[in-house]
Amino acid sequence: MTLQQATLPVPQFDQIQLADLKQQIEQSIQNGQKFLNQLNEVPHDAEAQLATLTEVDQLENNMSEVWGILSHLNAVMNNAETREVYQSLLPSLSEYYTQLGQHTALYQTYQQLHDAPVFQTLSEAQQSAIKLALRDFKLSGVALVGEAKQRYAEISARLSQLSSDFSNHVLDATQAYFKPLTETQLKGLPQSNVELLKQYGQQRELEQAVATLDFPAYFAILTYADDRELREELYKAYVTRASEQSDKTEFDNTPVMEEILSLRQEMAQLLGFNNFAEYSLASKMAPDVETVNQFLVDLAEHARTPALAEIAELKTIAQHDGIDELKPWDTTYYSEKLKQQQFNLSQEALKPYFPAHKVVHGLFQIVQRLYGIQIIERQAPVWQNDVRYFEIEDQGQVVGGFYFDLYARNGKRGGAWMSGFRSRVQTANGLQKPICYMVCNFTPPIGDQPALLTHDEVITLFHEFGHGLHHMLTEVDNISVAGTHGVAWDAVELPSQFMEFWAWDNESLDVLSEHTETKQTLPQELLSALLNARFFQSGMQTLRQIEFALFDLTIHSQTPALNSQQIQATLDDIRNKFTVVPTVAYNRFQHSFSHIFAGGYAAGYYSYKWAEVLASDAFDRFESEGIFNTETGKEFRKFILAVGGKDTALDAFRNFRKREPKIDALLRHQGWTNSHKTA
Fold first, then answer.
1. 338/225 Cα distance (integer angstroms)
2. What is the mean pLDDT of residues 605-624?
3. At what angle do helices 607-625 and 289-319 cross, to 10 degrees?
4. What is the pLDDT of residues 590-600, one digit of tens each?
5. Contact assessment for residue 174 and residue 116, using Cβ atoms and an 8 Å cutoff
């Protein structure tokens, strides 16, 4: 089938030269600096002030496009050349953004507009953009003078370098490890996993299966390998990545973590905050550190009883195999056995029903039903031959485009994410439509077999697509509040977590599943088993998320900043109080916790749980009014997806739900209460 060409102006990935890209980024930085250097005072009248704001938006639009391409390639095709160019540009990029955030005349321009009568005549989006800009100026140190200003700039530059180093260390440490496996060691692994490990072996020119720390390989061994020593060896390699406990100490993130925490603390104090957690929450929906801490502790209380029962079950089943003491490398293995025993369900039995192409097609059908949009695959240049490009049409009009890069491969960072390439904005040349990347690390196709997804991977795909819809279905034309821009970080996960609910719906599973050979949808017994197992270990999983969130919040609330021993002691203390799963002294989870040391979740990891309350409560309305109720879908699109950062997160939620958020639906969706649905 020949695809139509992309209708949106997409990047020419088949022609991109790193040297040209570098030049374009340098040019964008120079254009920005030139503009800032020429703006010495506030323009006299409102018209000229508004023109200045338009120019700032245009500069940002140009920058985010060229830098977005490089940053994307650095994440999905990481090699020495890309990395070198990326690293070389970080200092000047950081310098430019510091200059922008601390530019007094520009700040005063925003302030004067805000205080002038003309402000009331501006669109809601523009008003919100100005208010958020004023907040961000203050958080960027616009009020700082002299040495303090200089020091802020130095800290910003150094932090951007350190977070890049942290991320590189994790990637390099992950890729440095491999272990050839004997036939005996493969015992217990399903054939599809054995084939995957053999494929990893072939990539290394070996005639045997190879274990790696890529998540599909690591997870397969921890779940299925009967060889307990192998599971332990792989577990140890994985949890000591990028730490002093690893054989490869050149990737040790210990000094990087210490310096990041120390600099964040110093930056927060420069700006008048007691600690970095306070600084982080100044731009979020949650009011203060104490509220977040209490929210997490209360949620842990709800999860504790179910979690204790769940771990007791695991210990019992392990004892049947003569294992008196459950170890961390046993929990995934016995969880899978327990799931099979309790629900007659295995991930492996499900996989043939979820070929990737069918799941993708089913996801599109669901979204089409909910929001009345069409998704069409189009021809566009890509960076890797299994990447695909699609466009969204609404009533025959293209409203946005997206790329799917779904499979794990060498040189690609782990995890799953959505990142915007281009935002919706009104430009001099007309309306620019949004485009984004959605990236996952699923098990790739093996030989001539299609890629098969676990149900967990189906959920991940729905999650990332929720972010993508948030970016693409925005109806705001102002770049600083379009899509996910300007949305409080602890509410940005609402659309993504909300989408996950459809991966659990009976009707949805019918359109998502098709056996690779028989073409049957998921049979009743497997469907029932899957739904019955929905709350399997929900207590343990919640406590795990709370452990990460409390650890993140605590290390960013401590003054002075903690050293590595204190970081470890904090983690140990939180584990002692909250976790029920066994751990070991050499576990260095923090050394690869990229969300908080290399991503945007510093003192913000709680956002996943905070937004889950909002997502559960939003979905609760669909449960009451019909899961595919198009009117409800229309309202969710109108009040949540379309508004971007124009409305505050709380206002957007209230507009959709006609009331304040409640936690009841979350507790029910975890399987901990049987309370009736709230209206």
1. 15
2. 97
3. 80
4. 999 999 999 99
5. no
Give me the active site residues, please. 464
Q: Which residues of 380-406 are buried (b: 16+ CB within 10 A; e: fewer)?
A: bebbeeebbbbbbeeeeebbbbbbbbb
Round to whole Å and give the CA distance between 5 and 454.
Answer: 32
pLDDT band at 542 (very low <50, low <70, confident <90, very high): very high
What is the pLDDT averaged over residues 143-167? 97
DSSP letter assigned to residue 347: H
pLDDT tens digits along 259-312: 999 999 999 999 999 999 999 999 999 999 999 999 999 999 999 999 999 999
In angstroms and rounded to an integer, the radius of gyration of the C-alpha atoms of the chain is 25
- Note whether 32 and 94 are within 8 A (CB): no
Amino acid at 88: S
Closest CA to 635 of 655, 659, 613: 655
φ/ψ of 393, rounded to 5, equals: -115, 140
How far is residue 253 CA from its own chain's centroid? 21
Q: Model confidence at 443, in pLDDT bands (50, 70, 90)?
A: very high
Phi first, then psi, for residue 559 (nearest 5°) are -130, 140
Asked whether 18 and 85 are in contact (CB, 8 A), the reply is: yes
pTM above 0.90, yes or no: yes
Tokens representing residue 48 in the block: 């000229």
- The correct answer on CATH 2.70.98.10 for the domain covering 18-171 is no
Query: Has residue 675 got a pLDDT over 60?
Result: no
Secondary structure in 3-state letters for 393-447: EECCEEEEEEEEEEECCCCCCCCCEEEEEECCEEECCEEECCEEEEEEEECCCCC
The whole-number pLDDT of residue 678 equals: 33
For 192-218, b/e burial (b = at least 16 CB within 10 A) is ebbbbbbbbbeeeeeeebbbbbbbbbb
Q: How many CB atoms lie within 10 A of CB 81?
A: 11
Q: What is the mean pLDDT of residues 220-231?
A: 98
Is the separation of the CB atoms in 493 and 499 below 8 Å? Answer: no
pLDDT 10s digits, 338-349: 999 999 998 888
CB contact at 8 A, 461 and 496: no
Q: What is the mean pLDDT of residues 425-454?
A: 94
- Percent of the chain with pLDDT strictly greater than 70: 99
> In 3-state terms, what secondary structure has residue 141?
coil
The domain ranges of the chain are 18-171, 177-241, 265-347+537-600
Residue 363 has what pLDDT? 98
Sign of the torsion formed by the C-alpha atoms of 281, 286, 291 and 297: negative
**What are the CA-CA distances from residue 281 to residues 128, 156, 197, 227 (Å)?**
18, 18, 43, 46
Q: Break the chain down into helix, strand, coil percent, rounded to 5.
A: 60, 10, 30
Which pLDDT tens digit goes with each residue over 408-417?
999 999 999 9
**Beta bridge pairs of residue 376:** 391
Amino acid letter, 622: F
| Domain pair 18-171 / 265-347+537-600, same fold | yes
CATH of domain 265-347+537-600: 1.10.1370.10
Q: Are strands 210-212 and 430-432 parallel, antiparallel or unpaired?
A: unpaired
